[in-house]
Design goal:
By secondary structure, the protein is of the alpha/beta class. The protein folds into 3 domains: 128 residues, no CATH class; 173 residues, Rossmann fold, CATH 3.40.50.300; 61 residues. Helices cover 44% and strands 19% of the residues. The protein has 20 helices and 18 strands. The C terminus is likely disordered. The chain binds adenosine-5'-triphosphate and magnesium ion. Adenosine-5'-triphosphate binds next to helix 7 and helix 16.
Length: 498
């Protein structure tokens, strides 16, 4: 019997009176904010999952795609409360049937869901802002912990079918620092460095550096560079972006790829010496030669140079690692690997660019013991002293040693086969730290090669690495490498012999 206008005014007055007299303020967090989903709703849901699991009478369980954990959420009308900075807050989950579909974006859901937060008026100004920040941070942490790590690679021709620059699969590499055959002291040094980095947000902010760390892993093939990357990913829990530089058409595309990576990620460029035209100086040398050529040749060269100009260059790569754009995002680890450190441009090696240079060497005795534990399940054996006597002279890679150990299940047989192989390998040519061959034992002695040499870059001068080569000689080397790229693909063994 009541006219609608009067009914409306009456309900507004009722609401006003209730709000005025109430001790509490109420805040609703809806699942949808207009047409997009409300991120805060998901954060609140995640944040409340632990309270829901312990104190709610009724909870909803779910396992999200790509998640490795079950999450709890409050069921319809369920309430929980918690304390934050001395203030009590209450949450209730509301689920209402929808009268009609409001927008096509929400189709599929017949329910309107929202959380309502109840907080005392006197606490509101004091804690609300901090409390919401706390919820966001907590949810972020949980999200990170719940998610499966992903392995991304850049799409061919810059974009895939869905116009995304990266494609991904779940990352399930089993390598960890426990299974990695590495000198334990070095291992500790690297894990400590990673830990310091992960909790270094405040430090990086204070000193005005972007929160990222660079590692250069170098050494012969099969010494565990890729395994180390997987171990770092498993240690940090970060996603891995394996960047295939040969698929990137220009520096601008490289920048776009960088922007599309998430925080807490590892960006990997494997075999950096093989994947990018590392030298702008090589170009300059070509320019110099240009004037001496006939005009038709000059035109061809100009075209070639123009094409090269649209590709990824060293300066583009350096901008990617520590230029202005590298600071868009935080908590990033950049890892380059190479088999030939001497082929890299000194600009890539200079202080501060890559924070740590880690040399992965041939298998030493402490590293062998880890492999023996992994493959044979033994930490001591009567043949160990014999292995120790020949392992340094044999200079086999951990990959070679693993291959031998994996073939035999019986420890005695496996170790005998290994000793034989080590003795046979003794007289073969060796590869030194720079990827060059040395003859027999006459070159770099086994004792001269550290198992893994970790060079902290801060304040260190790497001039010594390239001091043997004059700039011109280095350009020659780079030219060799560019020519090498135009030849048919060689396998690694042939490439190193070349
Ligand atoms: N340090 C190591 N610890 C444990 N396993 C290792 C180690 N090095 C090599 N391996 C074994 O050898 C295989 C090849 O190693 P990995 O791919 O990590 O070598 P790499 O240094 O990346 O070689 P490349 O330079 O050819 O890429 C791995 O699958 C792993 O089983
Ligand atoms: Mg590798």
């Amino acid at each position: 019997l009541m006219p609608p206008e009067f009914r409306y005014a009456f309900s507004r007055f009722g609401r006003f009176l209730f709000d005025y007299l109430s001790w509490y303020n109420y805040f609703d967090v809806h699942e949808f904010d207009g047409i997009t989903s409300n991120e805060l709703y998901n954060c609140v849901q995640l944040h409340l999952s632990s309270s829901a699991s312990t104190s709610a009478q009724r909870a909803t369980l779910c396992r999200a795609k790509n998640s490795n954990k079950i999450t709890y959420s409050l069921a319809r009308s369920e309430k929980v409360s918690e304390k934050f900075k001395g203030a009590q807050v209450w949450w209730q989950h509301h689920i209402q049937e929808r009268a009609a579909q409001v927008s096509i974006w929400e189709r599929g859901s017949d329910e309107k869901r929202y959380y309502s937060l109840k907080i005392r008026k006197q606490d509101r100004d004091r804690v609300l802002a901090d409390y919401l920040d706390h919820i966001l941070n907590h949810a972020k942490q949980l999200q990170h912990g719940n998610r499966e790590k992903q392995l991304y690679t850049n799409a061919k021709n810059n974009y895939n079918y869905h116009r995304q620059p990266w494609e991904c699969v779940p990352f399930k590499h089993p390598s960890t620092f426990d299974t990695l055959a590495l000198d334990p002291a070095r291992k500790e040094e690297i894990t400590n460095d990673l830990q310091e980095f992960m909790r270094g947000e405040e430090f990086y902010h204070r000193v005005g550096r972007s929160w990222k760390r660079g590692y250069l892993l170098y050494g012969p093939p099969g010494t565990g560079k890729s395994s180390m990357i997987a171990a770092i990913a498993n240690f940090t829990g970060y996603d891995v972006y394996d960047l295939e530089l040969t698929e990137v058409t220009s520096n601008a595309e490289l920048r776009k790829l960088l922007i599309k990576t998430t925080n807490k990620s590892i960006i990997v460029i494997e075999d950096i010496d093989c994947s990018v035209n590392l030298s702008d100086r090589a170009k300059r040398k070509k320019e110099k030669k240009e004037s001496e050529m006939p005009s038709s040749m000059t035109a061809m060269m100009a075209k070639q140079m123009e094409e090269e100009g649209s590709r990824v260059t060293l300066s583009g790569l350096l901008n990617f690692t520590d230029g202005l754009w590298s600071c868009c995002g935080s908590e990033r680890i950049i890892i380059f690997t190479t088999n030939h450190i001497d082929r890299l441009d000194p600009a890539l090696l200079r202080s501060g660019r890559m924070d740590m240079h880690i040399f992965m060497s041939h298998c030493t005795f402490p590293a062998f013991k880890i492999l023996a534990q992994n493959y044979l399940g033994i930490s001591e054996h009567e043949l160990f002293p014999e292995v120790e006597a020949v392992i340094d002279a044999g200079m086999m890679t951990p990959a070679d040693v693993s291959e031998i150990l994996i073939k035999k299940r019986d420890p005695f047989e496996a170790l005998e086969a290994l000793i034989e192989a080590l003795k046979a390998a003794k007289d073969k040519p060796k590869v030194d730290e720079k990827g060059d061959f040395t003859e027999g034992n006459s070159g770099l002695g086994a004792t001269d090669i550290p198992e893994v040499e970790v060079k902290e870059e801060a304040g260190t001068n790497h001039a010594d690495m390239s001091s043997a080569k004059q700039p011109d000689e280095r350009i020659e080397k780079i030219d060799d490498k560019i020519d090498c790229q135009n030849e048919p693909a060689l396998n690694k063994g042939e490439e190193s012999s070349k």
